Amino acid sequence: MLKKSFAIFAATLLLISSFLTLSNVKADTISPAVTQEESVTDLFSKANKYVTLKGKFFVLDKTAENLFTNSEIEKINTQISQTNKMLAETYSAENAKKIVEVNHSNNTVLIDPDNQDNYQNVEALTRSRYHQGVNSVSVHWNYILIKIKKSTLNNIKNGSIGAAGYLAGKFKNIYIAIAASAIVGVLSANSIKGGMWFRVHTYVYTALEGWGWQ
Questions:
Q1: I need a surface site. Which of 103, 126, 138, 184 has the fewest CB within 10 A?
Q2: What does the alpha-carbon distance between residue 184 and residue 94 come to, in Å, rounded to a whole number?
Q3: What mean pLDDT, rounded, does the chain reach?
Q4: Are 112 and 91 in contact (CB under 8 A)?
């Protein structure tokens, strides 16, 4: 009887041990890119108020060093460096004729809009749901907001102009082709009722974060 009880006890311990081992393995091996992206998104959201435009480039406030880990600071600075590199190329002599508006009040850089006055007032045009819209690229430290007016969208959709070529003429970025592919995908699945906006992020991997009507 004693031997039987001991055998049952030992088997129970073995079963518990095996369950714990499998649980640990499962927890350690779950590290999908989506989880990584969500983690970085949360980090950048928290860091947003510490990143500002100084002159024509983005910088991280030194107070952030006491609020984030070294690893987090490295991720934030990597994103800032990537965006600043793109801006430096946009500000270069090759693109000197472009209209560039550095807006320190909302920490954005507006690149080559068709009409700056229309851009400033576009948010107030709410009498009808759809508008012709404007063409512009607004660079934030951790994402790019692309606005394309209706007539340009129609030209992209019917193949008169290429999305990648159009964007390359607006700003310099190694992720243009990916952003263009995402935009073309949206256009192919929707009728063009007005101008549209596209929000693209370039951390972890480049992706279309969202889109809507101007």
A1: 126
A2: 27
A3: 75
A4: no
